[in-house]
Amino acid sequence: MAGADLLVDVRDLRVEYANGSRAVRGVRFQIRAGEVVGLLGESGCGKTSVALAVAGLLPRAARRSGTVALAGNAGRRAAVGFLFQEAARVFHPFLSLGRQMREAARVAAPEGGAGRAVEAALEAVGLPAREFAGAFPHQLSGGQLQRAQLAQVLVGEPAVIVADEPTAALDRAAEDQVLDLIEGTRGKAGVLLISHEPEMLRRRAGRVMVMYGGKVVERGTAEQVLDAPRHPYTQALMACGKAGKTGGRIAEIPGQPPDPREEERGCSFATRCAKRMAVCEEREPAAVDEANEVSCWAHGE
Ligand code: SF4
């Protein structure tokens, strides 16, 4: 991969499931060391499939094409650590945290250092090892369990952390703690932070990509994308967020997302877009790439 700090280089990623659902339709992006890259979109837009593809966790029956090039495979350094939304499903309920984490630690520290690595990881996320290494998952709060999951990820020394809605089940205080800890790893790792909440990405991500219908439709710095969105879908998402913040009914974008099993024609957002033109229903706008940060006919080819 070009560039010493380039950790992830995804090109023309496509994911199709056995039911014919084409969840990802040609996505490309890069993540560099120290970056937090946000991936924003409604549920069903394909962002979790992107996350699973980057982490190599797609189900066997899924077909993936394109390339996902990762740095950090050499030596004992694991390439990707995955932080799931529901930490409770990650841990075995009848084994102590320390025992489960030592299994993960043996990959990164196989020469008898697993115990020390687990202690260090637990301390790093604010869970004193003397208190928590012997604890069982049900003895922890939701926020503590998510921090324990992060410790389990860190103990593998990943070059990249993929965090898929990591705080969706937490209250705001616990969310901030977990996100602070994820952010704290930036010097060493790159982070792909996936969320349906623009405000969370505004606070945490340096760059943001917006996904719709299996594609990235807009990308840029967090300020560019979230403060001055150009794609009508991003504008609609931000308008929904504002409606919620002002205390009114949480708005939804009218209409339904496209069926991922159907062949697409034209712009995938056309049926919901107030700005659509004749060309939008006939021809697909140019993809987001090096030369183009918005995929929309209203912003040129
Ligand atoms: S290409 Fe047309 S339909 Fe699609 S988002 Fe842009 S203006 Fe709307």
Give a brief outline of the structure.
By secondary structure, the chain is of the alpha/beta class. Helix content is 31%, strand content 21%.
Question: Explain this structure to me?
Answer:
With 301 residues, the chain is an alpha/beta fold. The protein has one domain (6-229): Rossmann fold (3-Layer(aba) Sandwich). The protein is 31% helix and 21% strand. The protein has a 6-stranded mixed sheet with strand order 5-6-7-3-8-9, with helices on both faces. Strands 2-1-4 form a 3-stranded antiparallel sheet, with helices on one face. Helix 6 (172-184) links the parallel strand 6 (160-164) and strand 7 (190-195). Helix 2 (97-108) packs across helix 3. The structure holds iron/sulfur cluster (SF4). Iron/sulfur cluster (SF4) binds next to loops. The site of iron/sulfur cluster has 13 residues, from loops.
Counted up, domains total 1
What string gives the helices and strands in order? EEEHEEHHHHEHEHEEHHH
Q: What is the CATH T-level topology?
A: Rossmann fold
How many extended strands? 9
C-alpha-based Rg, rounded: 20 Å
Number of helices: 10
CATH homologous superfamily annotation: P-loop containing nucleotide triphosphate hydrolases
